[in-house]
Write a structure and sequence with these properties.
single chain, alpha+beta, four-stranded antiparallel sheet, 3 helices, about 30% helix, about 15% strand, globular
Length: about 170
């Protein structure tokens, strides 16, 4: 018995849609969409959010980066590595975080994920989500800020924006 499929545009579209749906069902979703926001690599969720902080007066995303880093530090004071970091770090990750005009996290994009340490990826994502809302960028509106997370084996960290530097030898 031979079946002949007519290659109409409608059938091609249907076949492509069905193939995509089955592929996504088998993978558990789109790549990088396991968490609370698009681009998130872990299933970390926020542990609760505080009151909205004062709005930022930053006029550029570069200026806002300082406000966002200070906000993370204020919410995680006991987790910040005090002083110069050791010469060898456990993990380094660079993460871009997109915020809406009210300081809510809308997506994350790892520029450099520390894939050798998935627990650090999850902890950074949890920290970012738990710190929301961020200071509203009243002069900019929605924006994306990128920072590098410098992670010590003790679980303490610094953000490159506010880093105290790194020791050159043990």
């Amino acid at each position: 018995m031979t079946f002949t499929l007519l290659a109409t545009p409608l059938r091609r579209a249907f076949t492509a849609t069905l193939t995509m749906a089955l592929g996504l069902a088998g993978c558990g979703g789109l790549p990088g969409s396991t968490g609370a926001v698009p681009g998130q690599l872990s299933d970390a969720t926020a542990q609760g959010s505080g009151a909205a902080p004062r709005p930022s007066n930053a006029a550029t995303p570069r200026e806002y980066k300082q406000d966002a880093a200070r906000h993370i530090y204020a919410r995680n004071g006991n987790r910040i590595y005090a002083g110069k970091l050791p010469p060898l770090l456990y993990a380094i990750g660079t993460l871009s975080v997109s915020l809406d005009a009210n300081g809510r996290v809308t997506s994350m994009n790892w520029m450099r994920a520390p894939k050798h340490a998935p627990e650090v990826i999850a902890e950074i994502e949890r920290t970012v989500l738990s710190a929301a809302p961020y200071p509203a960028a009243s002069r900019i509106g929605k924006l994306t800020w990128t920072d590098t997370w410098l992670w010590d084996k003790s679980g303490h960290f610094q953000l490159d924006t506010l880093s105290e530097g790194q020791a050159s030898q043990f």
